[in-house]
Amino acid sequence: MLALDANDNAGDLRTTLQAYGAIEKLMSCHGAKDSQTIVAHRDELGALLRLVNERFAQDLDALDTTLQTLHSALGARETLQ
User: pTM here?
Assistant: First the structure.
C-alpha cells in the first residue's frame, strides 16, 4: 500500500512539474516571432507561481511522509526477521 502511495505522490509531483514547465515556456517564448502575444501582469504571474510553488511543497511533503512511513515499515520488518 505504501509503495502505491509513493507512486501516486510521484505522479502528483510530475503533474506539478508539468505545470511549472508550462509557465517556463510561457515566459521564455515572450517576443518569439511565431508565438501569439501573451499579456500578463506581474501580480498575476506572481499569483500563478505562488500556487504552483504551494502545490510543489504539498506534493513533496506528501511524498516525504509516505517515504518515511515506508522506511519505518521496512525497518520494523527487518527487526522482526
Answer: 0.69
Residues 19 and 55: beta-carbon distance below 8 Å:
yes
DSSP 33: T
- Tens of pLDDT, residues 2-23: 888 889 999 999 998 888 888 8
CB atoms near residue 16 (< 10 Å): 19
Rounded distance between C-alpha atoms, residue 19 and residue 22, angstroms: 5
- Tell me 30's DSSP state: T
Strand stretches in the chain, DSSP E: none
